[in-house]
Design goal:
heterodimer; A: globular; B: 163 residues; alpha+beta; Thiol Ester Dehydrase, Chain A; two-stranded antiparallel ribbon; globular
Chain lengths: 148, 163
């Protein structure tokens, strides 16, 4: 069993999704957190100067919001699945709807389809209100594959 | 790339101060340690050094896909900028990334952007990420960027502060 899958099992047992974050250096690098409500969670990216892409606006780096969305999708898949392998991103596409301002960002993941081999997810990231998303993402993940 | 009208003005990147400004102006790119490997009008290569903070899979040490997203977004955005002759604000409209294979741990990553169509309002850019040679990419991307007239004043202030 992979380290990520093992920690996901432990996180579920302790009902603390943030345990998964500790194992993923990149998620800590951008400074994201997971906020639980009931048995679900949403992702939170507190504002940080080091995530700014354009200091003139100021705006977060579009890539950081993309990375935050991708991290959110992977954590949700790890949380929802009982899989011994970590999900592998096949592709991801992002629509940048509004300039992500220099403030906190949130994201919520919707599992559109969970197939036997492939999962399709849709992620919406917003700052002020949920009905004004800044970036939406859509991706496919491979769940079952030959270990290399 | 085909030029539709004759414009004798130099590209902004012909000013050596602009090159240094591009990566240092963005706090996130500076923190990642992204460097410009090469740049010419319509084509740009970035180098992203490997470091452990960027790992996505703790079992293998492979960097996170989100880093590839940032590398592709950055290099493709600057590729659009490389074609500019006056200050223009460049915003990503959409970006799609195909993950072809995992990056080899500990190797630096390269991102290359190629602008294959530029209009006055939008730019279409292809990108690849690789860790050894271009013909064995780890990711392929396509993106569309929106162009809006930029603030020349602020840009000039930054530029004049450059040595």
């Amino acid at each position: 069993m992979s380290k990520l899958a093992r920690i996901a099992v432990e996180a579920k047992k302790q009902k603390d999704p943030n345990l998964m974050l500790k194992e993923v250096p990149y998620a800590n690098f951008i400074g994201m957190k997971l906020i639980t409500f009931g048995s679900e969670f949403l992702s939170h990216l507190p504002f940080s100067q080091s995530n700014v892409g354009n200091p003139l606006l100021p705006a977060l780096h579009g890539g950081v919001v993309g990375g935050f969305i991708e991290c959110s999708a992977i954590f949700t898949l790890l949380w929802e699945l009982d899989n011994s392998l970590p999900p592998k991103t096949i592709d991801f596409s992002f629509d940048y709807l509004r300039s992500p301002g220099g403030k906190d960002t949130y994201a919520m993941v919707k599992l559109v389809r969970m197939g036997g081999r492939v999962a399709n997810v849709r992620v919406s990231a917003w700052q002020d209100t949920r009905d004004k998303p800044v970036v939406v993402g859509n991706g496919n993940f491979l769940l079952k594959y030959k270990e290399e | 790339m085909k030029q539709t009208q004759q414009d004798e003005r130099p590209y902004l990147i012909e000013d050596p101060r602009v090159i240094g400004l591009m990566t240092r102006m963005s706090p996130h790119m500076e923190r990642l340690g992204i460097e410009i490997e090469s740049i010419s009008p319509g084509e740009c290569v970035f180098k992203q050094p490997y470091h452990e903070d960027l790992i996505g899979d703790p079992d293998t040490g492979v960097v996170h896909g989100g880093l590839i997203t940032t590398l592709m977004d950055s290099v493709c955005g600057i590729t659009v900028f490389s074609l500019m002759k006056e200050m223009v604000a460049i915003a990503t409209l959409d970006l799609r990334i195909d993950y072809l294979r995992p990056a080899v741990p500990k190797r630096p990553l390269y991102g290359k952007g190629t602008c294959y169509k530029l209009t006055s309002d939008v730019a279409f850019v292809r990108g690849i990420a690789y860790d050894a040679t271009e013909d064995d990419p780890i990711a392929n991307s396509v993106g569309v960027f929106a162009l809006t007239p930029g603030n020349d004043q602020i840009f000039k202030q930054y530029l004049n502060a450059e040595k």
